[in-house]
Amino acid sequence: MESIAVWQGATLFGILTWIMVSSYLNVTKKVRSLLQPWVAHYVITGTPTILKIQNHQHRFLDALFSGLSCVVSVPFYTAFLPLLFWSGHVKLARQMTLLMAFCDYLGNCIKDTVSAPRPNCPPVRRVTTTKDEEENALENGLPSSHTLNTVCLSGYLLYYLLSYTKWEYASLELAGFLFVCLFVGLIAVGRIYLGMHSLIDIIGGLGIGFGILYFWLAVHEYIDNFLVSGQNVTSFWATLSFLLLFAYPTPELPTPSFEYHTAFTGVALGIVAGVQQTYYQFHHEAVPRIFTPQLSIPAFLGRILVGIPTILIVKFCSKALAKWILPIVSNTLGIPIRSTSYIPMLNGSVTGKKSNEIKQSTYVQKLFFFSHHDSFDVDTGIRFFQYTGLAWSVVDLVPSLFAHLRL
Known about the structure:
The chain is 72% helix and 1% strand.
């Protein structure tokens, strides 16, 4: 027990120390000054390559690559992961959720540290067929998040299938490997074809993605064992999640990357808290899985019909509750707050002269060195609370409903 407390405390203290030291030394700007010109050079010199690929413009290719981008987007994974939990593949689901949160955090940290531009449009043609893609276009370039996430999640899924389904034929393993390579290749080419990324962004996404996947395959069993049977899991993860909101670089210009990080950090916390609470009821390895007599297709469809509306209701209620509670708590503690979107009456009420300030800017300074004009953007807390509640309902509340309804 003492050893557990020591490594948990050391981890949290190390992150806190890094936050303070990196803020004091202004590490983000120094790293950016070294890397941004180099990456921007390759973005500019890579424009002819993008134009050559876009010379093959066709409506079919527009639809194909736009559709593939939606399939590997964060909203897709947010919708897909609950179905994976309810299908009975609970270990795969929780591992992919935590891996997704890790990829999202690390990838967005690198994006906003380097703050590299996307390809200039024009001359590059940028295809944004969905609102999600329009928001993605507001992010920085290097690395390509779609490429990075696809490498990690499809690679881990293939590893899971090879490890736990015990395919008997080498030809099936080769087919699975080739399919993953083809899928990753299509995503990478598609990001260039759609004008969203340069070649350097894709190379960065591939390199970082393979690095994260290699690391995750080395530690995933330790993480899962800690998650289901460790000590102080929920309290440790809650503190870790809180610190990660501050251990995030300030981008050169406003981007939605911090919002994505906040949401998926909340998702990871909700999953961890829910699984830790109900592992022996709903998340052990002997739970019924889809395509077995214990969980038939009709029963799984029933789970979807019950589960999806429930988690959407919880998401709405969590957001409403956070919008009510967080301003009260902040005012009680004397913490100056503002809101950029969720609470109109707080929009610019504290720091009006910085109404267009980046949400995550100077968070470290605000945390440790309050002044009379500094304030927190309460939207960050609301978003975090909202997605924590959503994820908790996926692994705790909804499975409880399934048990009562015998689904």
